[in-house]
Design goal:
The protein is 71% helix and 0% strand. By secondary structure, the chain is mostly helical.
Amino acid sequence: MAIENVLPANFGYAIFVYLYSFVMLMYLGIKVGGARKKFGVQYPTMYSDKDPLFNCIQRAHQNTLEVYPQWLVFQTIAALAYPTVASVLGVIWVTSRFSYAWGYYTGDPKKRMQGAYGYIGLFGVLLLSIYVALQLLGVL
């Protein structure tokens, strides 16, 4: 069976969102690696007792990793039924993680909230996933 017979026609957009999210994760990881060298924080130490800026850089990456699996699940469910809408929501969420990180990188943790608009994307795919579940259950 050909893939184009299994996935919705616009699912290609969702695939590009997954690729965009990969670039975002690599960027955040590289920033942590650079901060490790700059601040002398050796593996496997997760946080610094001396350098709060390192901790901000580490937390930007770690927090993204903490929510990423859930986002992937909801993004995929939503994209299987509504690929274009889910892809727009996915781009919003992924882009917000850059804003979140750049705010955190200032050393002022409150500035991470510059990425708060990402909740539009996250809750958007969550709500779409609930809608898809209700459709599958015949409730809607």
